[in-house]
Amino acid sequence: MIGILYFLALLSSTVARGHVGLWTEGNGRNGTNGGNGNKCTCDAFLPTSTFPIKDMVLVEQTAVEISNRLELEMGKLESYETKLTSYAERIVNLTVEIERMEKNPGSYNNAHTEDVKIEIKQVEALIVELQSSIQGSTTVFESLHEQIAAMVETLTRLEKTYDKNVVLATRREYIKVQLQLEECERRHQELFNPNIGSCAHTGIIKISKPIVSQLNAHLSTSYKFGGWGKDSKPIPDRESMYWYSAYSSAAIHDIRFYTNYKNLILRNHYQHHTLASGWRGTGNNFIVRDNTLYYQINNPFGMAKLNFTTMKYDQRVVTKASARFSYAYSSNQNFDFAADETGLWVIYATEESGGRMVIAKINEPSFGIEEEWQTSVYKPGVSNAFMVCGVFYAVRTIDIQGDEIFYKFDTKTKQESFISVPFERFQDNYYNLDYNPTDQKLYMYNDGYYVNYHLWFNHTAKAIEESPALST
Fold it and tell me: Which of 154, 192, 365, 432 could be joined to 227 by an S-S link, Cβ 3.0–4.6 Å?
């Protein structure tokens, strides 16, 4: 049945393109058709390449498989939640019992003490088992993201080559499993990463494989320059909002807003702002914070912001900043805006620093520079950079498929260090890479594709003691 539908779809589209010659007259040698020597023929020229139904079926089968695996993972999450509640109760009861023993050691005999020790060991064993299960779920998520990335590539290729309407039904299945995975990861994060917004860690220790959402809203790989992500300090009722802006060159012409991840995937924006000619920007290291776009302008050379609540525009010239030094992938990335748990930042290089990168803290109400820190990293050798908890991280390309975080600078201690935290790219080039403190993810605009990464931090006892949670 599916094969017949595809054949009919192809035949109808072929007719629409004029590839079927309808009834034509010809000279019959045998004098048929009433003896008048004419006959009617119908020539149908089908495409030289048939529709790749095997690819479509494979994508559909993959979508069903992912959906089934996600249902299993959602069931595990419910089990995890029950176990966590049970473990927490046992730990509380044990804590109370141990406190009693410490206050009145003479009231307990050796047998009772041994019972408590056994119960402690049982709880430890249960926690180790739970940790193993959690790691197993994380591995499953990574595997599912790889399968979805393959689906994205297949569907994008088919949409470019064949009728989009024919591919649409399968894309709906892809959207369904993508949303299931997003919800499953969200619940997993709520259960096992309650430290969103906290800086009780000593830094990034691992980055996930690239998580590919899909090709941009323009459905065009020519829109290589741009960015996407979430508001780093969302206003009320817009906590789930996503934004996207891109162009065929390093220019900022417009921006689209989506109420949630589902509408981003469906390309169903609820706001579309076109920047007035005098407000347009350049470069691709812009961000959205507090419903305000922060970005670079060239006339005059400086930084600008546009508040979408009030539609008020403002700009500032940073006299020290140089227009000569940019990131490795683009010649127009002089100002790099970043936001983290501690506030708003802008990163640039100066003539005075010889092209080495300078970190500057922005006072949000006045839109002025509060303080600066100079690093030892030469900006043209860096692919991109971002801030996390007041710590600057610089990224460089190491091979055809991979990058690494190779340097960090702590603005609190003014200490710098060289590190190595590798991660993969989905496509060759990227022009926007930013951390978002609301979900502790990295967002990358990778040659026209929406890509993001999960981060793992070094949550040590020392970090928890020395670094209390910071608020935005």
Answer: 432
